TrEMBL record:
Listed GO CC annotations: nucleus
Domain of life where this protein originates: Eukaryota
Species: Lithospermum erythrorhizon
Domain Bromo: 213-264
Pfam families associated with the record: Bromodomain, BRWD_AD
Keywords from the named record: Bromodomain
GO BP of this protein: cytoskeleton organization; regulation of cell shape; regulation of transcription by RNA polymerase II
The UniProt record lists the keyword Cytoplasm: no
Protein name, entry field: Bromo domain-containing protein
Keyword check for Transcription regulation: no
Length: 282
């Protein structure tokens, strides 16, 4: 789900303006639009050189005036706690709206620690429910004012930021059996035995993953270790996302060792190995 007011806040906070195709139909865009991410890739932000995510959004709501319209969206860091979450998974959005939060309801909100790593749940109560702007009537953006325990200040939150332990929402994810199969297969890739023949270039991949020139060269320097940890934490919601990260990892490695025929052959072997594994899991 695309939340127009949240996008406007993001643009304002970063001194940006609505550009391209979106500018043409901005006035016809509703406060909430159903959209589909049609394309996504990791890239390097021009100017800063920092990693970013480029995606193509397609509005697909059947009753929307902008149905079928597409635009390119670039976000600097999806893990940045200061980036407004104006793109919300539909299932999560629907569940948060159906929860029908009201004043004085107890809730918990996840606050990420500075630097974007880890965080903790903060307990509080919803104090009021109000639109944040007359420009976006009916928008769910930050309509709840929440006061935390032992804190007099109130903070505005969106419905999907509020958590109710009594009404747990389970995000979509790769099913358990396929995830276990993937993890088991990953661990078999590591060379073993007295000769330790590295037919898939795994040892080399592990080595370059620690090198600064590799880490700084690519927007997202993915490694088997990172992908394995993401699998362990149930990070991937669809197999397509896992396939995408694996392809990025292989592409990065091929680019890093450009011209090395031996390593290139091993990457082709590894790519074929993954293709066969995904076929088994279909």
């Amino acid at each position: 789900m695309y939340i127009k007011q949240g996008h406007e806040e993001y643009l304002h906070n970063n001194d940006l303006k609505v550009r391209g195709p979106l500018a043409k139909y901005w006035t016809n865009t509703r406060v909430v639009e159903l959209c589909l991410v049609e394309d996504l890739k990791y890239a390097t932000h021009s100017g800063s050189g920092e990693s970013c995510c480029e995606m193509t959004l397609n509005f697909i709501g059947s009753s929307s005036k902008v149905q079928g319209q597409k635009f390119l969206l670039t976000l600097p860091d999806l893990d940045d706690s200061d980036t407004p979450d104006f793109l919300v998974e539909r299932g999560w959005y629907d569940a948060s709206m159906e929860r029908n939060w009201s004043s004085r309801d107890k809730c918990q909100v996840w606050w990420t620690n500075p630097g974007g790593r880890d965080g903790s749940w903060w307990k509080g109560r919803s104090q009021s429910v109000n639109d944040q702007s007359n420009e976006f009537p009916g928008s769910p953006w930050k309509i709840f004012s929440v006061q935390y325990k032992n804190d007099e200040e109130e903070f505005n939150h969106c419905p999907w930021e509020l958590h109710d332990p009594a009404h747990l929402f389970e995000h979509s994810h790769i099913d358990r059996d396929r995830r276990k199969k993937m993890l088991s297969s990953f661990r078999k890739l590591l060379p073993s035995g007295p000769n330790k023949e590295d037919n898939y270039g795994i040892l080399k991949l592990e080595q370059i993953a620690q090198k600064s020139d590799f880490i700084n060269r690519f927007p997202v320097p993915l490694s088997l270790d990172i992908i394995e940890k993401r699998l362990e934490k149930n990070y991937y919601r669809r197999m397509e996302a896992l396939k995408y990260d694996i392809n990025v990892m292989l592409s990065n490695a091929q680019s890093y060792f450009d011209g090395n025929r031996t390593f290139s052959k091993k990457m082709k072997n590894l790519s074929h190995w993954f293709d066969e594994l995904f076929l088994e899991l279909e």
